[in-house]
Design brief:
- There is one protein chain.
- The protein is an alpha/beta fold.
- The protein has one domain: 2-enoyl-CoA Hydratase, Chain A, domain 1.
- 44% of the residues lie in helices and 15% in strands.
- It has 11 helices and 9 strands.
- It has a 6-stranded mixed β-sheet, with helices on both faces. Strands 5-7-8 form a 3-stranded mixed β-sheet.
- α1 links the parallel β2 and β3.
- α1 runs parallel beside α2.
- It is globular and about 55 Å long.
């Protein structure tokens, strides 16, 4: 079974992150499939709308580290090219490809959107969330920087809210995420399909060429921020090979408190 599904209906495509066992964590294969879907969409003159969602009651649990377990806490050997850099850089490419789509991009979030999943939502034009959805960028609590998503969180939320979100790792319920500026509309659990339909109807009056041109202009504003893909990949790979990430991920796996959290803060 494919971990990334594309269903076409007329001028709309529905992209589904489809790995329920991992709560749709972003494996290498899923990242590649998502990037390839973006490339095809960008050159599709008929496609007008993309809906990005997750399967089985989750949007996306963030990045998958399963393939790199042996690298956690292990320094890179001299002269060795780091596969962690390449993998993280590919995810950065996906975020850039999503935000550069000429079509309207709607994220339909039902359930958790963590880390990289939070970053995906920040690339959307419109974000819908069910009441049970929860959002967070918990990387710093694990000893990792939210490196690739940081510029997109900053662009979506503004500096003040982005700093609070990225540096605290706190969780936001759907209503809080709407107040934060991440979510456009919160819908009742079980009513996401109707909400997506209503949203597509609302934007159906916009001409596709005008939509694409408007998004290109908005992209020019984004151009004021530097492209941090390489720097972010270096920061993430270095952190994952360091002692903080090793102890943080070890503590998380065992539901323990990481060593940098003082006893009074853990209560």
């Amino acid at each position: 079974m494919s971990n990334f599904l594309v269903v076409r209906q007329g001028d709309t495509e529905r992209w589904t992150l489809n790995d329920p066992a991992s709560r749709n964590a972003l494996s290498d294969a899923m990242v590649v499939a998502l990037f390839e879907a973006c490339l095809l969409a960008k050159s599709d003159p008929i496609l007008r709308t993309v809906v990005l969602t997750g399967a089985a009651g989750a949007f996306c649990a963030g990045g998958s580290l399963g393939g790199f377990a042996s690298a956690i806490g292990q320094p890179l050997q001299p002269g060795e090219s780091d596969p962690l850099f390449e993998a993280n850089r590919r995810f950065g490419d996906v975020l850039h490809a999503l935000i550069e789509l000429p079509q309207l991009l709607v994220c339909a979030v039902d359930g958790p959107a963590m880390g990289g999943g939070f970053g995906l939502a920040c690339c959307a034009d419109i974000v819908l969330a069910t009441q049970r959805s929860v959002f967070a960028t918990p990387e710093v609590t694990l000893g990792l920087p939210p490196a690739q998503i940081a510029p997109f969180v900053w662009m979506r939320l503004g500096e003040r809210a982005a700093r609070e979100c990225l540096l605290s790792g706190r969780h936001y319920r759907a209503g809080e995420a709407r107040e934060l500026g991440l979510v456009n509309n919160v819908v009742a659990d079980g009513e996401m399909d109707d909400a997506v339909h209503d949203t597509l109807q609302k934007f159906s009056h916009a001409a596709p060429g005008a939509t694409a041109a408007t998004k290109r202009l908005l992209q020019r504003l984004r151009g004021r921020a530097p492209d941090l893909r390489d720097e972010a990949a270096i920061a993430f790979a270095s952190a994952l090979r360091g002692s903080e990430a090793a102890s943080g991920l070890h503590a998380f796996a065992r539901k323990q408190i990481p060593p940098w959290v003082k006893n009074d803060a853990a209560r």
